[in-house]
Amino acid sequence: MSKLWGGRFTKETNKLVEEYTASISYDQKLAFEDIEGSIAHVTMLGECGIIPKEDADTIQKGLQTIAEKIQAGQVEFLVEHEDIHMNIEKMLIDEIGPVGGKLHTGRSRNDQVATDMHLYVRKVTNEMIELITKVQEALVEQAKHNVDTIMPGYTHLQRAQPILFAHHLLAYFWMLERDKERFSDSIKRTNWLPLGAGALAGTTFPIDRERTSELLAFSTVYPNSLDAVSDRDFVLEFLANASILMTHISRLSEEMIIWSSQEFQFIELDDSFCTGSSIMPQKKNPDVPELLRGKTGRVYGNLIGLLTVLKGLPLAYNKDMQEDKEGIFDTVNTLDGALKLLAPMIATMTVKQENMYNAVSNDYSNATDIADYLVTKGLPFREAHAIIGQIVLYGIQQQKYLLQLSIDEYKTFSPLFEEDIYAVLEPKHVVEARNSIGGTGHQQVLKQLELAEEKLEKMFC
Ligand code: ARG
Prior knowledge:
- This protein is mainly alpha-helical.
- The protein is built from 19 helices and six strands.
- The strands form three sheets. A two-stranded antiparallel ribbon has the order 1-2.
- Strand 1 and strand 2 (158-164) form a beta hairpin.
- The longest helix is centred in the first third of the chain and has 37 residues, at 109-145.
- The protein is elongated.
- The two termini are 55 Å apart.
- GO terms for molecular function: argininosuccinate lyase activity.
């Protein structure tokens, strides 16, 4: 029997079974995490005197050689060795002889694969945090160029009140900030070490789990061996955080698609981020934001997929859990591409400030400000609101915007109106007046920008 576990078997594995159950085609992505975990494990075995120190050293060197060979693309992973763990163990034995067989002392593939996954999730979580930061930087840069750009703010996709474009962009900055916070918070749970849990019940060897934990820079060890080998919460958490992040990305993408349409013409995406049509020569399609929006589906799918795999699964390890990998690999790949495209796409888009301003100058989005005007003159808001409703209706019937009505027309609705109403209705004033904390007023947006930049700076100290 060529299998590492072949002892109790009398027949070769059916080829189809071998192919169907093998994970090597994808879990080879974990090769370096697997070697890192093994080096820590064997170091601990040597230090604890569970295997002779020289053997531990030989194994460690052997593992390093294998890592180098993998790096150089000099190894072939084989389906007959099923997964990354047994492929590497086999390579080790081929490399250094039977002493390599001592590596698996006091551990099982169950705590081994869980450890690999913890190391992997921790690594990619940090990578995602860095990539999100790049998008945030692009948003801040674009916001800085647009602290005076007035655009319509929407509710129900109907013009609601004028806002600064910088304010709109920064809304996404804060969404991403929370995404980052969720990812970094999850690290404290990812930082639990499963190694030493054995197959499910612990081990008879006098291992030092704390030492292995220290070597791998985990913050603690799982206190329960059953939980250690069967927990995939940390993968779920990554997928859930990724899903929320993709939700945000899909919303921003949608806005970029709308804004760059002929109907809006608020922005133009750089040519290098668009594609053409094979039949309609005039087209410039926002394929990238469309795909980002579309790829949100697979990221949600990977979360739902793993939730479903784990639902109702009895303790402890079950082969079902091998299904934790392809989904997260796909999600990481999707996020990596999305974030790497989003940052330069935001940085290079052209903002059509004039079109945005024209839009707010030709609508009724300053109506709330007339109400507020009457309120400052002593009228209860509800009454003011009713009057403005009538004024807007009158304006629509007369085909005039609020700035185009004469003072005499205003006075027919309320004697409280005076010439100063016109200054109040200028879009710039309408924006400026919203100076409450977190509002779109210029001063507030500048403060927000400062806060955002502080957050970015903190990240790097
Ligand atoms: N390839 C397996 C996985 O990814 C490794 C653990 C296998 N353990 C076992 N008892 N068959 O889950």
